[in-house]
Amino acid sequence: MSIRALLPVAVLSVLLIGALAWHLGAGAHAVPPRAVISALLSGGESYDAAVIAGIRLPRALGAMLAGASLSAAGALMQGATRNPLAEPGLFGLLAGAALAVVAAQGVFGLGAPSLVPLLAAFGALVGALMVWGLTTAAGGGAGMLTPVLAGAAVSAFLAALTTLLNLVDERNFEDLRVWLSGSLAGLRMPVVGMVAPWALAGLAAALLLAPKLTVLSLGDESAQGLGVPVARIRVLTLVAVVVLTASAVALAGPLAFVGLTVPHAARLTFGSDYTRLLPASIALGAIYLLAADTVGRTLIAPAEISTGILTALVGAPVFVALLKVRG
Amino acid sequence: MVEIAPDKPGRITVRGLGVRRGETQALRGVDLDIVPGAMTALVGRNGCGKSTLLKTIARILRPETGEIEVDGTTLARLSPRAAAQRMALLPQSPILPEGMRVRDLVAQGRHPHRGLVRHWSPEDDAAIDAAMAATDTVQFADRRLEALSGGQRQRCWIAMTLAQDTPILLLDEPTTYLDLSVQLEIMGLLARLARKGRTILVVLHELNLAAAFADRIVMMRDGQIDAEGPPSEVLTAPLLQRVFGLDARIIADPDTGRPVCLPRTAA
């Protein structure tokens, strides 16, 4: 590999390690860097080691997986739809996943953590299909805002159902309130270990789909001429997006705008070739959520700001900027 | 005129092709042999089915009846990738990928030659270099596509289809929206490629471009082929009247001897 190809890899690696160290060390109880390293390497019985291994490490891994998954899902959606505003939140997948999890727990009593990724995947798929159906009914993919409007309508509808369920079952609501705002608080290692294979499979699929999405960016007819089975690639992309979104929701609840903010930040440096954009989005997504979660935990410590609130605060201006540039 | 060499690759055979687009029957029983190693122009009025025929050969549209063979192999039996190793397509309005550099665009032409996990080979680089040299786009290699003029951009798209390294090249109205001098430049490029042995099938709107550059002209009317042959045989006043509803004289180009269509404009 040339220096030009290695430099971004080196920079992203340094940023990732830096963000991870910051996340593990900072917090209501600050742990000095040396103690972080010794806790990771040799464990131990100290309070610091218990905080690192039991609380912060699962949380950091969850942040990395959720950030990488949502960013990859956003980039995949933007490639498959050729719509720069495509993103799991704006296109109804997050609202669908959240409702499915809440409904299963509240109505059917299906609260087992192992079920959460499956429920979230089902809900994300239903949300995506509702938005797709509404967009088609409104005259197809004309204009990049049509699916965003459909996404807003579907998300509002599904969120209303979620709120309704919560009002009916207030005790459950207390448990889910923080999760619904998009939070990594209280994430434990067994849940991370259960979701990780799904997330990693989705990320691998995203990397395999990347060269096809670059070809797809030349238009459907060009892509077909270049031997890309367009319909099949779109279906496979939807499957990968649903798996990635479900993984992120199972770890951190619905985190708004991550799938929009990170790929577009990556585009500024890495261009729109998906073979570069997807790996870059995955790395930047992990870094972004590590940083957002650390800020959320330290800004008003010992209280916490949900990560989802921070990603929305950053993401909404990005959305507006994209509208101004592309609109 | 071109010798018909049976052993040249790139022979397309169309038999009994019927295609329906929505409510209308766009093609009704088309039979056609595309001569390998020559440029064939598809002409006709709007809605006559010329683009439909090209898109069906390119496998973008599915035929209702009939069959297309490429060098004796039924097209429908080929995988998308195998078909893309035999035919390259330049659609009428491909999408300009944002921020893509010319060389990266041309490199997309190598897509059908790569496996699931990408392996970049010296062969790929050689094909890209040759394609850019043939289209005179080497000097744009590191430029962004959106920074080029319409004609330069069109040459880059053609370079991408050449990098695909296929015996057959399909083009849907490649000269539309270009200045006349640029139209001539693009057609000259296609004629050179045909002389080097590629089979070129091109939908053209401009009759005189077809007459000046194509080896063969296929005239279509109402989803059927009305006439087919070298320009000097096909471009006749009665045929133009029948196919285009055009009152025109045919004169010979003093330089090339090729027919030129001169519509009567006197009131």
Automatic annotation (TrEMBL), chain A:
Gene Ontology terms for molecular function: transmembrane transporter activity
Protein topology in the membrane: Multi-pass membrane protein
Keywords of this entry: Cell membrane, Membrane, Transmembrane, Transmembrane helix, Transport
Alphabetical list of Pfam families matching this protein: FecCD (PF01032)
One GO process term, biological-process aspect: siderophore-iron import into cell
Subcellular location: Cell membrane
Cellular component per GO, a single term: plasma membrane
Family: Belongs to the binding-protein-dependent transport system permease family. FecCD subfamily.
Protein name: Iron complex transport system permease protein
UniProtKB/TrEMBL annotation, chain B:
Cellular component GO terms held in the UniProt record: plasma membrane
Domain of life: Bacteria
Localization terms from the record: Cell membrane
One Pfam entry name: ABC_tran
InterPro entries xrefs: AAA+_ATPase, ABC_transporter-like_ATP-bd, P-loop_NTPase, Siderophore_ABC-ATPase
Similarity-based family: Belongs to the ABC transporter superfamily.
Keywords: ATP-binding, Cell membrane, Ion transport, Iron, Iron transport, Membrane, Nucleotide-binding, Transport
Biological process according to GO: iron ion transport
PANTHER family with a match to the protein in the record: IRON(3+)-HYDROXAMATE IMPORT ATP-BINDING PROTEIN FHUC
Gene3D superfamilies: P-loop containing nucleotide triphosphate hydrolases (3.40.50.300)
Matching PROSITE patterns: ABC_TRANSPORTER_2 (PS50893)
ABC transporter domain: residues covered: 12-247
Gene Ontology molecular function: ATP binding; ATP hydrolysis activity
Bilayer disposition of the protein: Peripheral membrane protein
Main location: membrane
Species this protein is from: Roseivivax halotolerans
Name of the protein in question: Iron complex transport system ATP-binding protein
